[in-house]
Amino acid sequence: MKRFRNILVAVLLGTATIVSAQTREFAIAIHGGAGTIENPEKNPERARLYYAALDSALVIGYDLLAVGVEGPQVVMAVVNYLEDNPLFNAGKGATCTFDGTFELDAAIMEGKDLTAGAVAGVKTVKNPINAAYAVKTNTEHVMLSGPGADDFAAGQGLEIVENSYFISPRTMEWVEKLKLESKKNGTVGCVVLDFYGNLTAGTSTGGMFKKKWGRIGNAPVIGAGTYADNETCAISCTGHGEYFIRHAVAFNVSARMKYLNEPLPVASDYIINTILNINTILNADAGNGGLIAVDKEGTIALPFNSTGMYRGYLYKEKEIGAVVKEVGIGPEMVTW
Ligand code: GLY
User: Fold this and answer.
1) How far apart are CA 64 and CA 68, in angstroms?
2) Quick check: pTM over 0.70?
3) Does ligand 1 lie within 6 Å of residue 89's CB atom?
């Protein structure tokens, strides 16, 4: 009976998947971007590729969390996998700027001491999340940008590549398909509650298609795209960055929990589906996208207001050791 009592209760509230709160040994959630995403039923072959990639990312996280690896290393390993996978708009496969070049953003934050690091507009760092971590760990700064950030990453011994490394056939497909559109959303992220009760959040992105003038999105902006506080939650956002910056989305979810005592699912759903609500023409602040978040109990929230969000979560229950894992693209989550 106990096992049944502890089994996952996944509640679909609009497009917000909420996993019921209970004490967990560890928990991880990931995203691979939100936006106008093809209904998985329309193209099952393609959906399978995404489900499999999301599942692999969760398994990488699980294998590390299960042997006590700490949150930042787990977040980096998982984000590295997503950065190296051309299916996603981060690292290899990133979307391109107006000039056809690649400028990448990333951030990481630890909830135990509020330390954070970020890079913006890097052009040669193979895995920008690693450069963000190096900023956090090895400098007195929080965010480095442009050529300085590339130089810093090289000096740290991180893997450096030609800018053309980031091109993938998929990117070129996007370029053809989206030539007439003004934007392309998509980002990857990972949030973790580790074995030691610490929260970490990380986000990495190529930004928005055809971005100009050194545009920086929300992903590397602490509080807008990435945030972690052990007292509240760890969050990684994806979507139309300008709106997420204006509404300090990640920080606002954390603040609602801290100052209004709102549970994570309520706070995150309010910001994504009320403040950024895209389903009313009256809302000038409508910004499409979503977020993934985990709190100190291991409660996971994955709200989005777009047609879909590549996402997944996994957690291990403390008492009975059961592991629950699901991935999703459209409104439904599936066990993979
Ligand atoms: N959310 C990613 C960006 O706007 O750059």
Assistant:
1) 7
2) yes
3) no
